[in-house]
Amino acid sequence: MLNLLAVKDQVDRMVRDRRVVQGDYESRLALALEELERQSVDWPGLGAKVDVSRTSWLLPAICESPTRTYPRPPRPHQISIAATDGSQIFPDRHEVAACFLINIGYVLLHYGTGEKPLMNSIPSLYYGDAQEDWEGHRIYPNRDSVGLRRTTMEFTEVAELAVAAQQEGHQVVALADGTLILWSLEGKPQELRELVLEAHLRAFEQLRRNRIPVAGYISKSGGRDLTNALRLGLCPLEAPDCDRCPWREGAIEPGDAELPCGAIGGIDDGILLRQSLTVGQRTPAFASRSKILEAYGDHHVWFFYVHVGREIARVEVPQWVAEDDQLLDLVHACACDQAEKGNGYPVALSEAHEQAIVRGRDRERFYALVEESLVRGDLGAGLSTKSASKRTAVV
Question: How many domains does the chain have?
Answer without folding.
Answer: 2
